[in-house]
Amino acid sequence: MRTEVCERFGIEFPLFAFSHCRDVVAAVTNAGGFGVLGAVAYTPERLEEELRWIDDHVGGRPYGVDVLVPGRIDKAARGGSGELGGLLAAVPEEHWKFLAELFDKYGVPQPEFDRAARPGARGPGVTERGATELVEVALSHPIRLIASALGPPPPHMVEAARAAGVPVAALVGTAEHARRQVAAGVDLIVAQGGEAGGHTGEISTMVLVPEVVDTVAPIPVLAAGGIATGRQMAAAMALGASGVWCGSVWLTTEEAETPPVVKSKLLAATSRDTVRSRSRTGKPARQLRSAWTEEWDGPDSPGPLGMPLQMVLAEGAMRQITKAAETGNPGARELAGYFVGQCVGLMNSVRPARQVVYDMIEEFADAIERLNALTEG
Amino acid sequence: MRTEVCERFGIEFPLFAFSHCRDVVAAVTNAGGFGVLGAVAYTPERLEEELRWIDDHVGGRPYGVDVLVPGRIDKAARGGSGELGGLLAAVPEEHWKFLAELFDKYGVPQPEFDRAARPGARGPGVTERGATELVEVALSHPIRLIASALGPPPPHMVEAARAAGVPVAALVGTAEHARRQVAAGVDLIVAQGGEAGGHTGEISTMVLVPEVVDTVAPIPVLAAGGIATGRQMAAAMALGASGVWCGSVWLTTEEAETPPVVKSKLLAATSRDTVRSRSRTGKPARQLRSAWTEEWDGPDSPGPLGMPLQMVLAEGAMRQITKAAETGNPGARELAGYFVGQCVGLMNSVRPARQVVYDMIEEFADAIERLNALTEG
């Protein structure tokens, strides 16, 4: 395909792949798409390692990095150092108690929250200071896009990217947010519908994409949310999108580092098995429905904390849950889950990431051909 | 267009228009689409009148009727006669009290609930007996489709339609429901995403349509939910739909009998201004967010009743609210609302229904052309 976005980003097919796994990023980039590494879970040192590995495996082909700069950070965390220890100190006693009882109820060994024991734990990257360090590392590599989830990128991020000649993308869930992002200097908008995995709003892709396209034209818009097949990609482009941004579909690829217990839950799940819940990060995020989401959103819960406190709590707990689930603990299996969109119902087999790209290209072509046959008939 | 659905239903463009307003039904049918009259609010006598009027205005062109056969009717109503008086007697005192306080709080004159004073009030049509009577009236006219919302049509409805040579359509929100509908003998499936107005599930159109298409092939599927423009129609057909089913978009047409106060709220609303709430019918139904939905779903509410009790309560209250709002009562204006999908954000001008059809045809053609330019480029 020779679209404006393909030309601008040096790709053959306007499919952007968001993944926390470097192997997926490299595989999609090498297959003619555009891999974007989700950096929020990494320390600057670890991100440096990952990007060096990607540089060594894509032969100069284009890829990008995604950071998460939260617009409003929980007050308790804002004053702190942004380090995990400081964040943990801000978690109320009531929430520690609920967490301990939850582990008891499901027969899972209690998790340990000791910063020294867990270097690289999620947490730092979601504070403004943490995000800035990640941006610096990212811009020291030959990336071709830097993306920001949750709120407009801070001016220093836009300036640093401009200086490095790197376009800035931003995820939005409403037309109003898209307008603000463009005013903040963003070059590429990802319009993400409420069916998406992870942090998401409530407006569906079908409605959001045309609204955002009309609002920000001529800035190009990628469609995100619920998209895992080539016919959905054709649909997104019929809506006016210049390409698509997919996250969930890579979780069940061969390359994905998704824990086996989570991968098997994802493969078995239908499109009804997700829920938009604050229980994993403190902000509404779509994920697999599990005992974790049901308990935190249930009547006996003290309610999830804000971001990043709930994220720190949940990620520490989830590491323990996943570990226990992998040893066959049935309660841990019930609690285990992960961010995923409603398209999980369409993810029913394990394929190499490269193959997902090729399948989408073929399905896309078929969908266009079918549409043409309808209108010519 | 010469698609299978166009051939089968004798139409030029596979756009099905659901409306409670006979003028919209006739206008769409006369413009080359397929109008479907929503009959749930009508008594059999009134439906007879409406269909006679349509017959006189479409010159033999095809149209259909939609009835609402609830799968599970509220127990309190099931034993009753299905008449409005019997239903009202089953409303708990707590709910009458909440309703009275709500009217006080917003400064709206109290509504009267007296069956004798309000012949033709909503209520009867949503019981099984009521629905059966409507089906009988519908089948005595030259209709080309009978549709059933909420649950598989009862066997006698399918048999009666078959005997009359009329295809049966059903609205579904999940692939599993689509499978059950086909097993019940349905000829045409409407896959309705969670962004739709009215009774709706949670799976978005982008995800639901391909799932349902794959599940029921070769039964044709219409896409519904969020669709108000031709590019969205092209998107739906890229997903594998054989056409679309639109409801919301007709509410702001010239012909629509939407009360002026509601029409102006719809024209001003953005895609963020809807909510899926049980406050209007007892089942989750997407509608304009209003003081009515906020209060019933708020912390001081006794909680909405089941269907059809909440529907009887809400419709009686809404008649009074709309009447007061039209006289300029500001509290009533806050309470006023109506069923509408997220595409309300795309409904920003009043057009004749005929013009909506023509605009969709043109936008559809443009979208296909744009897609072809992308892939040929």
TrEMBL record, chains A, B:
It comes from the Bacteria. The keyword Membrane does not apply. Transmembrane segments: none annotated. Residues 273-302 are annotated as: Disordered. Keywords: Flavoprotein, FMN, Monooxygenase, Oxidoreductase. The keyword Hydrolase does not apply. This is Nitronate monooxygenase family protein.
